[in-house]
Amino acid sequence: MTSVPTTPTPRPWVLLFVAVCLVAANMRMTITGVGPLLDQISSDLGVELATLGALGAVPLLSWAIVSPLAHGLSARLGMERAVTVALLALIAGTVWRSLPGGLANLWLGTALIGASLAVGNVIMPALIKRDFPGRLPLVMGVYTALLGGAGAISAGVVVPIAGIPLGDGTLGWRVALLATGAAVPVALGVWVWAVASRRRASAGIVVEATSAVPAGVDPDGSDPDGADSDDTDAGSERRRSGIGRRVWRDPVAWWVALYMGTQSSIFFIMQTWLSPIEISRGYSAEAAGTEVMLLQIIGVGSSMLVPLCFRGRLRRSLPALIPVLGSLAIAGMLTVPALMILWICAIGIAAGASLTMSLTLMAVRARTAEAATSLSGMAQGVGYLIAAAGPVTFGWLHQMSGGWSLSLGLVLALCVVQVLVGWVAGRERSVLAGSDPA
């Protein structure tokens, strides 16, 4: 007699939730810790600071290149194995980046870190959609808050770590960068444990079900003539590949991608240039750095606002309302710079909520986990390509004009575009409607 599952098995969601949180906490720490150490890296390697400044764009370009490929990796390995591979690559990239030697280790290690994070960026929202369907906005909010919170912590601790005395010197920037990945092995271990527990639970409840096998079908689930009743591996692969291609022609997917691109560009512009703006207005480097930290911390808190608000009638309008606050903040920076702290708080709220809203749209605009990974890969590939151009364009406008008004005008224009895109993306529609089975 054959044993087959007859009822859905309760998933070990608590352990899986802890694993998701640990993965999220490691999705930004290895890259946000680079900026505060650029001066030390420049002095140690004898490289101009302006050249090393481009190091911050390497993860964004890696995300733009690798994100569209993550759906195919997920289709071949499965989402859980793909995340496992990404965490292993993240460990390897973090170690590689800190190895002694010239610039090659620093740049190539950073590129590998970016590629590994791209896979996690794409797959985690789809996995959350699949495993936490009844708690989607809440889990996505916690996930996003941990992205920003852990990133802020990393930016704040790398310089003290690098300055810890060791013999006649200090630990240095290499050890500090290595420390940003110290928690990745813990996340990997808990992730593997949670995935194994989930699989054991899924296989745990079985019943004797010979009588439940339909007439004309052998107990092994195949047609008596030899045809498998399920999709063949080749057929399943073709269907997954088709989803990955069709999403690039779907208008809903492009609206989500544009929303992702505008919000990412605004965030990385402010993250990169807020400190120079404040220093040019007479602030000390320490005070300017504190304001950047404030921007990140407020963004962490605002990430949790989306789960509270994304319900009822606000589901439709929230994607457009969030960047309205960002528009007011940038307009305030241009017209009443004396209230800069207020405007930084406002843009921080908008930035954190926008990121959560972007990831939530990737989940709710797809009806299946497969469609979600495809949409996430496409939207993040396009989004981070736009984001990589944002800080560069901002700096070019500043250099050309000699002031900040024209550059901040670019950010204001991006906020307005995000409002318009958010109004369209907020419509209750799904990608691949009519072609992807619900």
From TrEMBL:
Q: Where is it localised?
A: Cell membrane
Q: Which residues does the annotated region (Disordered) include?
A: 214-240
Annotated keywords: Membrane, Transmembrane, Transmembrane helix
Domain Major facilitator superfamily (MFS) profile, residue spans: 14-430
- The domain of life for this entry's organism is Bacteria
> Where is this chain compositionally biased, Acidic residues type?
220-234
> How is this protein situated with respect to the membrane?
Multi-pass membrane protein
Is Membrane found in the keyword set? yes
User: Gene3D superfamilies in the record, alphabetically?
Assistant: MFS general substrate transporter like domains (1.20.1250.20)
Q: Name one Pfam family in it.
A: MFS_1
Query: Which InterPro entries does its entry note?
Result: MFS, MFS_Cyanate_Porter, MFS_dom, MFS_trans_sf
Which SUPFAM superfamilies does this one have? MFS general substrate transporter
Transmembrane region positions?
Answer: 12-29, 49-70, 82-99, 105-128, 140-163, 175-196, 252-273, 293-310, 317-334, 340-363, 375-397, 403-425
Q: Which PANTHER family match?
A: 2-NITROIMIDAZOLE TRANSPORTER (PTHR23523:SF2), PTHR23523
- For this entry, the protein name equals MFS transporter
